[in-house]
Amino acid sequence: MLEPDVPTPAGATREGTAPAAQPTPAPAPPLAREHLDRDASARTAPGREAAFDADPEALVLALHDGRVLVREGVDGLELRHPSTLPAPGLRCFLGRTLTDPGASGPGAPIEAWVYDADASAAIAPGTRWAGLRSVAAAFGDRDAGLAVEAVALANWHAVNRFCPACGGSTEVVQSGWVRRCPAEDRLLFPRTDPAVIVLVTDDDDRVLLGSNAMWEQNRFSVLAGFVEPGESLEAAVVREIAEEAGLAVDRVEYLGSQPWPFPASLMCAFAARVAPGAATAAVPDGEEILELRWFDRDGIAEASGSVALPGPTSIARWMLERWYGAPLESSLPWSTS
Ligand SMILES: [Zn+2]
């Protein structure tokens, strides 16, 4: 029996004939990458903003409406010196670039500057605002981590302008990492909503994929749901699969995680196996999930021309390729924004 954490290379047979020189799946989910010193102690340093503005090495990641500034034809962020940009509506300290071993001095400080609807005037020719889902998988580790950090922070600020306890206006403090309610001296910290996403397999190591009611036809992915208050991650896995597919699962195993700041999720990936003796007839709940299908490896390779698989930035795609044992080609990619 194959275990979920021992992927069979694509095309391998049960007799063990592995194909030659298959490309291997990515070692980490695409948005779980980071190459940065977040330098949390600097967030409360007096005079930090003025020092940033005067630092010739300082870099700004510009954001507008959840999108990051990129240069056409370049797989990375368009980072600018603060003196070349107009004043933003919000600024958040992201951290410092990591320096090579033996290099003198700290790395370059980086801030996210968030612009409102008039921001398009700040865009120079050759650049554009891009959504993470369409560009971040091609970014290097530093830019992928920076972009996710910046978008997640900006999304949190956008919906926390008022205190949840008294309704008063809140102000930005600690370099964008805290909001404060002056009326109560209450501090508000950025929140992340945990969700579980589950690679369900059966005893034949087939994988269960579902088509969500919110998606266009022929989109299939692994099942996912938010963790409820007072619930462990493992209990959420068992509950979600029972609710969405009518299946009893056990052998819940943690695979990895990645932030998914649309607007504030942390996707926690698990493998789970249909429980011994339990029926494998998956029954969609008819509300959130409209169709469920089991795929073996040959089946998913064949279906990739007619079924849209999760986008390359998603942890779902990483989970599927990890199970499959190689990158999956899909001629019907999910639309991205
Ligand atoms: Zn308050």
Explain what this protein looks like in three dimensions.
- Strand 13 and strand 14 (265-274) form a beta hairpin.
- It is globular and about 65 Å long.
- It folds into two domains: 40-158; 193-324, Nucleoside Triphosphate Pyrophosphohydrolase, CATH 3.90.79.
- The two termini are 40 Å apart.
- The longest helix has 18 residues, at 141-158.
- It is built from six helices and 15 strands.
- Residues 1-20 have low confidence and may be disordered.
- Helices cover 18% and strands 26% of the residues.
- The strands form four sheets. Strands 1, 2, 3, 4, 5 and 6 form a six-stranded mixed β-sheet that branches. A four-stranded mixed β-sheet has the order 12-10-14-13, with helices on both faces.
- With 337 residues, the protein is α+β, with helices and mostly antiparallel strands.
- The chain has helices spanning 48-54, 132-135, 141-158, 233-245, 297-303, 315-324, and strands at residues 59-64, 67-71, 79-80, 90-96, 109-115, 127-130, 171-173, 178-181, 186-188, 193-201, 207-212, 223-226, 249-260, 265-274, 289-295.
- Residues 163, 165-166, 168, 181, 183-184, 186 line the site of zinc ion.
- The site of zinc ion has 8 residues, from loops.
